[in-house]
C-alpha cells in the first residue's frame, strides 16, 4: 500500500506520537506533497508489534483490520489520483474532497464540489452544479441524506423537474451532477455498493432528444448574404459564420483565440470543455478560409502574436469575469441571429446552431463520422452521433415519403 507520483505520496502509517489510553496507536493514511503532510483516520488502532506483522499475518482479526485499512487507503488514493489527473491537486482540495464533500448531507457535498471548481477557475462547471443544487433543494430541502438518494427518489425528482417544464436534457444534466456526487460518496465509503442508485435495473439517466438545430448549406448561404444595413447585424452575422466555419467552435474557445494560434494557415486550439478531463491534449486544427480571413480583417484586433484575434476579452479578466463576458457576448450573438432567422423565415438561429450545422453539413457530404467527431473535439463517437440524430431523422422522413410516391 504505497502510491507515489507527481510529487505526491500516499501510505498508511502507525502514529506512535499519539498513544491512546489503552496503549494502542492510531493507524492513519498519510499524504505527503511539497514537504507538507496530511493525515486521514482509518478508525483502526494497533500496537507497534501488530503493525509490523500486519502485511503477512494470517490471524483472522488482523486480516480484517488490514482489509479495513486497505479500504481507507484506496479511498484516499482514488481521491488523490482523480484530483491529480484533473490538474486540481492541492492538500486543501483533497481535504475538501475527503472531508467536506463526503460528510453530513448531499447539500454539503454539492457546496464542497462548487467550492473546489471555483478554486481552479472552472466557473462554468461550478455554475452548473449550483443550478443542480438549487433544483434538489426545491424538491427535497436543505438537508438531504445520502441514503435517501434511491432509484425511487431519482425518478420522483425527474418528475418534479418535468413538472417545472424543464426539458429532458435539463433533467439529464441534473442527474449526471448528482451521480458525480454519489460516486464521490461511494469512493469515500459514505454509501455502500448496494445503496448505489444508478445503473441497469436501478435509475438509468435518459438523455433528451436533440432539437432540430442544423441548417442546410442553402440556409447558411442566405445567412452569409443577409444585410439589413446595420453594422451590428453585419458584425454578429460574421461572428456566427466564423463559429460555423471554425469547426463549430464553442464561444468560450472563440473568445480566447489569439493570433499566435494561427500556424501555417491553420487555427490551432484545445477545447476548454475537455482540456482538463482528457489525459491526452487533443488539439483541433482548422484551415483559415478566405471568408474567415475576411472576417478577421473586418472585425479583428490589430495583428500582434499575443493579441486576441477578436476584441471580446482584454486578458485582464479573472475566470469569473471571463465567464460573464463570454455569456454576454453569446447572448448578443443569439439575440441578433434570432432576428436574422425570423427575417429569413429559417427560425431561431443560435451559436449552438452553428456547431450542429457544421457537423450535419459534413455528414450530408458523406464525411466519415470519426473525422467529424475529431473536428468537433468530442471525446467519443456517441456524442457526435447525438449531434447528428436530427439528420438521421430527416433521412428517415425523406425515405418514408419516397415510399409513398406511387
Based on the model shown, name its key terms.
alpha+beta, four-stranded antiparallel sheet, three-stranded antiparallel sheet, elongated, disordered C terminus
Describe the structure.
The protein is elongated. Helices cover about 50% and strands about 10% of the residues. The N and C termini lie far apart (about 75 Å). The chain has about 400 residues and is α+β, with helices and mostly antiparallel strands. Helix 6 runs antiparallel to helix 7. The longest helix is centred in the first third of the chain and has 26 residues. The relative contact order is 0.07. It has 16 helices and 7 strands. The strands form 2 sheets. The protein has a 4-stranded antiparallel sheet with strand order 1-2-3-4. The chain has a 3-stranded antiparallel sheet with strand order 5-6-7.
Could you tell me the mean pLDDT? 83
* Spatial shape: elongated
- What is the gyration radius calculated from CA atoms? 27 Å
Low-confidence stretches: 402-406
Kindly, what is the distance between the CA atoms of the first and last residues, rounded to a whole number of angstroms? 73 Å
User: Class by helix and strand content?
Assistant: alpha+beta
Strand order of the largest sheet: 1-2-3-4
The string of secondary-structure elements, in order, is: EEEEHHHHHHHHHHEEEHHHHHH
| Quaternary organization | single chain
Number of strands: 7
Largest sheet: 4 strands, antiparallel
Helix content: 40-55%
Amino acid at each position: 500500500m504505497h502510491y507515489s507520483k507527481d510529487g505526491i505520496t500516499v501510505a498508511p502509517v502507525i502514529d506512535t506520537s499519539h498513544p491512546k489510553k489503552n496503549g494502542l496507536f492510531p493507524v492513519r493514511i498519510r499524504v505527503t506533497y511539497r514537504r507538507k503532510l496530511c493525515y486521514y483516520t482509518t478508525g483502526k488502532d494497533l500496537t507497534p508489534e501488530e503493525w509490523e506483522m500486519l502485511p503477512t499475518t494470517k490471524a483472522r482479526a488482523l486480516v480484517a483490520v488490514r482489509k479495513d485499512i486497505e479500504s481507507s487507503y484506496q479511498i484516499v488514493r482514488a481521491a488523490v489520483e482523480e484530483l491529480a489527473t484533473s490538474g486540481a491537486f492541492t492538500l486543501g482540495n483533497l481535504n475538501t474532497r475527503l472531508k467536506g464533500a463526503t460528510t453530513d448531507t448531499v447539500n454539503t457535498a454539492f457546496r464542497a464540489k462548487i467550492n473546489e471548481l471555483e478554486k481552479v477557475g472552472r466557473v462554468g462547471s461550478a455554475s452548473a452544479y449550483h443550478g443542480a443544487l438549487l433544483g434538489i433543494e426545491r424538491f427535497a430541502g436543505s438537508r438531504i441524506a445520502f441514503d435517501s438518494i434511491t432509484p425511487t427518489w431519482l425518478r420522483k425528482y425527474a418528475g418534479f423537474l418535468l413538472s417545472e417544464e424543464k426539458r429532458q436534457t435539463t433533467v439529464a444534466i441534473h442527474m449526471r451532477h448528482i451521480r458525480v456526487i454519489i460516486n464521490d460518496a461511494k469512493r469515500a465509503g459514505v454509501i455502500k455498493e448496494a445503496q448505489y442508485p444508478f445503473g441497469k435495473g436501478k435509475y438509468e439517466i435518459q438523455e433528451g432528444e436533440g432539437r432540430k438545430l442544423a441548417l442546410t448549406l442553402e440556409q447558411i448561404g442566405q445567412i452569409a448574404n443577409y444585410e439589413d444595413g446595420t453594422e451590428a447585424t453585419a458584425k454578429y452575422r460574421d461572428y456566427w459564420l466564423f463559429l460555423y466555419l471554425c469547426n463549430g467552435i464553442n464561444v468560450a474557445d472563440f473568445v480566447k483565440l489569439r493570433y499566435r494560434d494561427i500556424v501555417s494557415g491553420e487555427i490551432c486550439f484545445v477545447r476548454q470543455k475537455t482540456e482538463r478531463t482528457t489525459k491526452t491534449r487533443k488539439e483541433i486544427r482548422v484551415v483559415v478560409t478566405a471568408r474567415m480571413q475576411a472576417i478577421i480583417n473586418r472585425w479583428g484586433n490589430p495583428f500582434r502574436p499575443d493579441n486576441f484575434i477578436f476584441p471580446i476579452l482584454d486578458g485582464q479578466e479573472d475566470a469569473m469575469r471571463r465567464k460573464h463576458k463570454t455569456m454576454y457576448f453569446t447572448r448578443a450573438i443569439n439575440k441578433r441571429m434570432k432576428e436574422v432567422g425570423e427575417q429569413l423565415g429559417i427560425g431561431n438561429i443560435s451559436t449552438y446552431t452553428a456547431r450542429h450545422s457544421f457537423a450535419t453539413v459534413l455528414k450530408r457530404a458523406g464525411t466519415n463520422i470519426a473525422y467529424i467527431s475529431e473536428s468537433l473535439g468530442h471525446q467519443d463517437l456517441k456524442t457526435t452521433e447525438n449531434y447528428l440524430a436530427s439528420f438521421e431523422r430527416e433521412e428517415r422522413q425523406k425515405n418514408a415519403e419516397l415510399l409513398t410516391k406511387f
